[in-house]
């Protein structure tokens, strides 16, 4: 009877756990508790257990991955992939201080190692305290070659309380640094209030305790690596006298080891341990001071006395840029050569080269070097291949590379994720009431009457660009939807009042507070509560790109009688003068085809659901987007002389790349959209696929096409939604030439083309 009474509560507990686990793979943003983790306890090994040390080496693309190398008997060697499993990878990662293993790779993915192959035919359960305790052929007994060297990818998270234990005291210079955490702790009052923290003690967390490092053997190279880890491109000198006075007043607690970096490492874990330090009895080290670093922030993050921080992120280096990334400091790497932007092929792409790009753009070291077009595929040429950097170059263009990119396609475009300074933006914004961490009502933290309070954002004018900034600020990827009503998401109690109104973003801002808004003078007639702004975010987004060559190759002119243009006239596809002419007159049409590719990582779907599509009886089809493309003809001084527009008659997959199946077809009221890797072709011979140039005089013009002009559907990159061409019209014939995508040419070349420089907000 008692068991039956407890049954509902047991079922409820199980359901709660299932609901919690449903979104576990997404990670948990601030405000959502992480799953509890065990606390680290140092392994107690039997006296006869072989003493080994591990490291991750080779051609890394993240600091927490690499070829598994074992130090034994005074020599580094590798591990064979025979019988290796995720359980063995788990033992490796745990021994290195990571929470768990993510994956493992056979066949020397991270390059061939050197020296002995210490382990072969490992049979681990995953519970062993050290790899040396896993059953194997025996240390050094192997029939493998280095082409079979195994690699692992470990989780980003470190084991709480992890303590480095050196079992090989005589070989400390061969070992990599393994600590739980690292930080720069601001000491001087002038730096404690400053965001980001750029100067202070370097402290390592070992065994759950924060400790300073003795500056006896500290070098500028060490400072360079530490600054890079925290998002800063460089380091500078500091006033040592002030820190000497501070160290006398407060007794430091020193770590047992020194640090030995070469300066091109992306992370402290890739640096070698220096010699063990022996603090004096009075608690000081031989050098007498804890290590201090002073870092130089990139311009986008540098505080200024008056304006605080730069209001929007801007690329600093005109020869290199990032495109297609969801958050600041990540994106596909593009370089400018001969006035044209192009990509880098991912052959040999690694952390060293990625770090050069990151520092060049005013960020720190690279978190990850991405390959395989992971952050979207570019357009245009592939400028660089097989890039090899030392890590000290000022620009990626100074590195050795192969100019030939034969065999490289945009499916191999290289990308980066960079360390950026901790600006604290995430703490001032939250999503509340959503079904998962990636959606909800937007709530901001503002100062009211001397105290910080949470409130909502007025939804008047709230759109895709504002939602994009919210998702970026929270590190949740791209916006997938912007909501002007959120009654279905009950937000935090007491946060219903409007705290921000009149928000207008360009889409490049790092924080919602950097967008234009009303400040303290709130004005929101609709009020907060159910009418508050909301968003949903996604890790991926579509990216529509027009093919400029198709426009150039298919352009022609047609004279068409008005009586054959009745449907087009009803849909406003003709110039205004067409309403004043008889039916037997002709209109002169500039016709062309549009081929629209989806180069992103999710399908492009119309914002409106199928039941709200508009039926157009004349053309006998549905419009899922009332304005899908704009066509404009400009004079050379930038004056618009003719225009056209096109609703999405039908968004469907006309053709797809090899191996990709079509998903969208308009026939029989089917679903509309463009699949990733597919394209939709609007042929030159369909209605409204033109500009009415009846009233245009002969001359030279600029022709421009913009897709998704009102940003109805979120994309990873709007700058490439535009195509511009030179156009010559002599009254009888028309020529279209020099067609290119927006943002594909240098700024100097682009300025010779009037109209929109790229598809950024200009009309709101």
UniProtKB/TrEMBL annotation:
Residues 1-21 form the signal peptide. GO terms for cellular component: basement membrane; chromosome; endoplasmic reticulum; extracellular space; membrane; nucleus. It holds the Pfam family Lysyl_oxidase. Its EC number is 1.4.3.13. It catalyses: L-lysyl-[protein] + O2 + H2O = (S)-2-amino-6-oxohexanoyl-[protein] + H2O2 + NH4(+). One of its GO terms (biological process) is chromatin organization. The lysine tyrosylquinone cross-link (LTQ) is generated by condensation of the epsilon-amino group of a lysine with a topaquinone produced by oxidation of tyrosine. Residues 54-155, 184-296, 320-419, 429-538 form the SRCR domain. Keywords: Basement membrane, Calcium, Chromatin regulator, Chromosome, Copper, Disulfide bond, Endoplasmic reticulum, Extracellular matrix, Glycoprotein, LTQ, Metal-binding, Nucleus, Oxidoreductase, Repeat, Repressor, Secreted, Signal, TPQ, Transcription, Transcription regulation. Gene3D superfamilies: SRCR-like domain. GO terms for molecular function: copper ion binding; protein-lysine 6-oxidase activity. Mediates the post-translational oxidative deamination of lysine residues on target proteins leading to the formation of deaminated lysine (allysine). Belongs to the lysyl oxidase family. This is Lysyl oxidase homolog. It comes from Parambassis ranga (Indian glassy fish). The lineage of its organism: Eukaryota, Metazoa, Chordata, Craniata, Vertebrata.
């Amino acid at each position: 009877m008692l068991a039956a009474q407890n049954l509902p509560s047991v079922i409820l507990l199980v359901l709660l756990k299932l609901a919690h686990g449903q979104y576990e793979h997404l990670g948990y943003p601030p405000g959502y508790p992480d799953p509890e983790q065990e606390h680290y306890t140092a392994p107690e090994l039997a006296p006869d257990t072989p003493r080994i040390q591990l490291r991750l080496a080779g051609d890394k693309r993240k600091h927490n991955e690499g070829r598994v190398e074992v130090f034994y008997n005074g020599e580094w060697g590798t591990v064979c992939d025979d019988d290796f499993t995720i359980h063995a990878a788990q033992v490796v990662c745990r021994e290195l201080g990571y929470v768990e293993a993510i994956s493992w790779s056979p066949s020397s993915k991270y390059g061939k190692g050197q020296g002995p192959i210490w382990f072969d035919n490992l049979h681990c359960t995953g519970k062993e305290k050290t790899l040396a305790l896993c059953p194997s052929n025996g240390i050094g007994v192997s029939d493998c070659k280095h082409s079979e060297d195994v690699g692992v990818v470990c989780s980003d998270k470190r084991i709480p309380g992890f303590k480095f234990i050196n079992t090989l005291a005589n070989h400390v210079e061969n070992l990599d640094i393994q600590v739980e955490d690292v930080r720069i702790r601001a000491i001087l009052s002038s730096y404690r209030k400053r965001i980001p923290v750029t100067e202070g003690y370097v402290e390592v967390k070992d065994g759950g305790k924060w400790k300073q490092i003795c500056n006896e053997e500290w070098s500028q190279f060490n400072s360079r690596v530490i600054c890079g880890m925290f998002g800063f491109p460089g380091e500078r000198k500091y006033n040592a006298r002030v820190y000497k006075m501070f160290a006398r007043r407060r007794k430091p607690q020193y770590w047992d080891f020194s640090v030995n970096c070469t300066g091109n490492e992306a992370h402290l874990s890739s640096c070698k341990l220096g010699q063990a330090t022996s603090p004096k009895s009075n608690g000081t080290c031989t050098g007498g001071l804890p290590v201090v670093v002073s870092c130089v922030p990139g311009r986008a993050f540098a505080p200024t006395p008056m304006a605080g921080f730069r209001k929007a992120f801007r690329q600093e280096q005109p020869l290199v840029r990032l495109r297609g990334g969801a958050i600041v400091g990540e994106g596909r790497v593009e370089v400018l050569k001969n006035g044209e932007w192009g990509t880098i092929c991912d052959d040999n792409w690694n952390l060293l080269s990625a770090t050069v790009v990151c520092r060049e753009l005013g960020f720190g070291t690279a978190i990850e070097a991405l390959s395989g077009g992971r952050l979207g595929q570019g357009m245009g040429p592939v400028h660089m291949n097989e890039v090899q950097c030392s890590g000290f170059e000022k620009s990626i263009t100074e590195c050795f590379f192969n100019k030939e990119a034969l065999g490289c396609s945009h499916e191999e475009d290289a990308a980066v994720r960079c360390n950026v300074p901790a600006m604290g933006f995430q703490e001032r914004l939250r999503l509340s009431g959503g079904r998962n961490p990636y959606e909800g009502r937007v709530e901001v933290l503002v100062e009211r009457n001397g105290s910080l309070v949470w409130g909502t954002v007025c939804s008047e004018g709230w759109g895709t660009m504002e939602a994009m900034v919210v998702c970026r600020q929270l590190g949740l990827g791209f916006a997938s939807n912007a909501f002007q009503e959120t009654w279905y998401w009950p937000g935090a109690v007491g946060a219903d009042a409007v705290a921000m109104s009149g928000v207008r973003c360009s889409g490049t801002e790092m924080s919602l507070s950097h967008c234009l808004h009303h400040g303290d003078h709130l004005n929101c007639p609709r009020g907060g509560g159910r009418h508050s702004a909301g968003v949903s975010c996604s890790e991926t987004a579509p990216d529509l790109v027009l093919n400029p060559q198709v426009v150039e190759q298919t352009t022609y002119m047609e004279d068409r009688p008005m009586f054959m243009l009745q449907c087009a006239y009803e849909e406003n596809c003709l110039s205004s003068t067409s309403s004043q002419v008889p039916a037997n007159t002709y209109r002169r049409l500039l016709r062309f085809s549009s081929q629209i590719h989806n180069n992103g990582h999710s399908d492009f779907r119309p914002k409106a659901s199928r039941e709200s599509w508009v039926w157009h009886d004349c053309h006998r089809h549905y419009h899922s987007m009332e304005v899908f493309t704009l066509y404009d003809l400009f004079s050379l001084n930038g004056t618009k002389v003719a225009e056209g527009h096109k609703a999405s008659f039908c968004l469907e997959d006309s053709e797809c790349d090899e191996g990709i199946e079509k998903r969208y077809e308009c026939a029989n009221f089917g679903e509309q959209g463009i699949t990733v890797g597919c394209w939709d072709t609007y042929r030159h011979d369909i209605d409204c696929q033109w500009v009415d140039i009846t009233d245009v005089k002969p001359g030279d013009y600029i022709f421009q096409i913009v897709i998704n002009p009102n940003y109805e559907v979120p994309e990873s990159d709007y700058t490439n939604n535009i195509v511009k061409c030179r156009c010559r019209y002599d009254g009888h014939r028309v020529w279209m030439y020099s067609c290119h995508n927006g943002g594909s040419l240098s700024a100097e070349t682009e300025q010779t083309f009037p109209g929109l420089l790229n598809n950024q907000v200009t009309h709101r």
